[in-house]
Amino acid sequence: MSSTPKPPGGLVWFDEPPPPQATEQLSRERIVAAAIALADEDARGEITMRAVAARLGSRSPMALYRYVGSKDGLTDLMVDEVYGEITVPTPGDWRTCLRELGTSAWAAVRRHPWFARLAFSRPPFGPRALAVYDAALAAVDDLHLDAATRIGFVNTVLGQVLASGLAMLEERATRERSGLHTEEALAEAARPYLARIAADGRYPHYAKWLADRNPGRDPEVPTFEQLLEWQLDGLAKLAATSRGR
Predict the structure, then answer these.
(1) What pLDDT digit, counting tens, does each position of 139-157 carry?
(2) N or C end: fewer C-beta atoms under 10 angstroms in the chain?
């Protein structure tokens, strides 16, 4: 009889033995903290077990595996640690609760841009992640939506957070690679290309948008907060339609 399939590498909370007793140098908590600090410092948010070991003063990366199981296990622990920075208010007005979920998660992603990438790579089954999802689902419980729509409300908000975070992570890596670290430097580098596009004539609506822009006064793109409000407006209409059925 075949066994139940597991995620590659297993899940550190369910499929790995408990970590050994902490030493003066190593513990699960110290390893996770060091890995997060390294990921925060790297433009792409990438780490190696060797780099984590070096940060902790350990001679061998293999010593870390006794505490985290595998590189996937460390990823699970890092992601769940950031989920612990996300707050959802006590259930009340569902829109207020989901707005706080979005803004709190966005603040966490801005502190740890790599989270937006790694959150997609592993199941959100850690205790802190489950607490966030449980609180968010409690916020929409009184809407009496079906199960798929309830989780859809939560994932619409978290999806916007993670999509915006991925864009931020890629932009950060591009800035690091190109050396264009300021908005002014990016605008100056793009200026000759935008002028050629505007003069081309094949993209009239894009050219009109370029002409209508006021970079000195208007933001180039909507803020995260504006995008979140648009998402919540759509969810409010869906909730109202569901009540009327």
Answers:
(1) 999 999 999 999 999 999 9
(2) N
